[in-house]
Amino acid sequence: MDPKLTAAIDVLERVDRRLLDPESDAPLWPTGFPLLDEELGGGLRAGTLNLLAGAQGEGKTTFALQIARRCASSGRPVVFLSFELEAEALLHKAISAEAAERSARPMPLSVRQVRAAFEMSDDTVGGGLPERLREHAGGIEALTAVSGYAARLYIHRSTTTQTTLDVIAAAVKDVMIEHGVAPLVVVDYLQKVCAPDQLAEDERVTRVSEGLKDLSIEFECPVLAISASDRAGLEPGTRMRARNMRGSTALAYEADVVLILSNKADVVARHHLMYGANNGEHFKDWSVMTIEKNRSGRSGGEVEFRKHFDCGRFIAEGRFVSEKLVDERVYTE
């Protein structure tokens, strides 16, 4: 019998066994952002393609890495395919973020200071990472925390010429064999996955998005893929939407969840900027996460998170957006 053919009674029995076994993992991967998890119905789901889009510099990689850290620290493996940053650069962010989450000091260990320790450009004379990070508040605690889940956080240095869907599938399979459970798969970012050169960009993106969705179903894991914006989505006065993801309408169609990160100052209604304190300057410190699509629950939710990019993170305790947001901003001379 076709292994993909499942009798409904088998599904019911499998769910019942899972509910009765306290050691069994539910098919949910919490993101570590409580309000986002609430809107998504508990977190990222097995067998789903989740897209995270936004303007350049809005913190998409930081947000995805924060979710990856949460999953790895909870005991689940992660495969992070990085087309943008080296593994060490991602660990700079991870260690700094862990330090900030553990330190009550106003100036915790920054990404820049971690980078200096890694590159021996700090003021410490000799010593390894423990000796160098001990000089900073929360440094040792952060290194201990990252070391605790580092064996479950796999960083794949990906390239646009070699990292194909087959390469991604092989990496996921290797991690599953090693840990015995499906990993969270992060792709940073989707438009750089290698596909046949003879295809036009929209066809390549369609092929990749379909392939990543198939991969999530085959391995029963969530795929979180970062998506670039098209030119229209970056125009001044324009609020990025799912239709602005670069390459193909198949992106929004194939995805189970579409999340859009926006600078709050760019999407809040004009009267908040004109009459608010400091002309709305404080809005720049916040990112709005819009849930454009959610096949497992309600769409259209808008939550906001404070940026803490000096320490490679967002403040996880967000809040629902109270101000009126707009689709288009009209700028006047």
Describe this structure in words.
The chain is α/β, with parallel strands linked by helices and 333 residues long. The chain has a domain at 27-83 and 158-320: Rossmann fold, CATH 3.40.50. The chain is 37% helix and 17% strand. It is built from 12 helices and 12 strands. It has helices at 8-20, 34-40, 60-73, 87-102, 111-118, 129-133, 139-149, 165-179, 201-219, 250-254, 264-267, 270-275; strands at 28-29, 44-45, 49-54, 78-82, 153-157, 184-188, 223-227, 257-263, 286-294, 302-308, 313-314, 319-320. The strands form 2 sheets. Strands 3, 4, 5, 6, 7, 8, 9, 10, 11 and 12 form a 10-stranded mixed β-sheet that branches. Strand 10 (302-308) and strand 11 form a beta hairpin. The longest helix has 19 residues, at 201-219. The protein is globular, with a radius of gyration of 21 Å.
